[in-house]
Task: structure prediction
Amino acid sequence: MSNEDEAAIRAIVADVQTAFNTKDAKLMNAHFADDASVVTAMGKRIVGIDALREAAEQGMAGALRDEYVRYDVTDIRFVRPDVALAYKQATATNANGEPIELDHSMVALYVLVKDEGRWLITARQNTLVPH
Result:
């Protein structure tokens, strides 16, 4: 797997961070496959791009409206040339990007597939980290 593949996956996670912090539901879901499946930090499973968009719009307008985050990619593993696992840690921040916690509060696992040269998120599992 190439440095370009790793950079592309890191860019996807960076886009998700930007989307979260700017409350951009469209960008939040720009890298998901149409049939993607996500398990939220609260344990709710959401399937399909339309349901993911709706959940992002509701969350950004509601409970996540005043939340900000920093994502750190901690590992990328290529299972096959067209399948990758990416792990990220999420740390809550203030609007200026300064951490408001001593350590990360969530870990996420992304399953990505390369389709016609483009990496897409096919699944994501979020897990809260108790403090």
In short: The helical segments are 3-22, 25-28, 49-61. The beta strands are 32-39, 45-47, 68-80, 83-93, 106-115, 118-128.
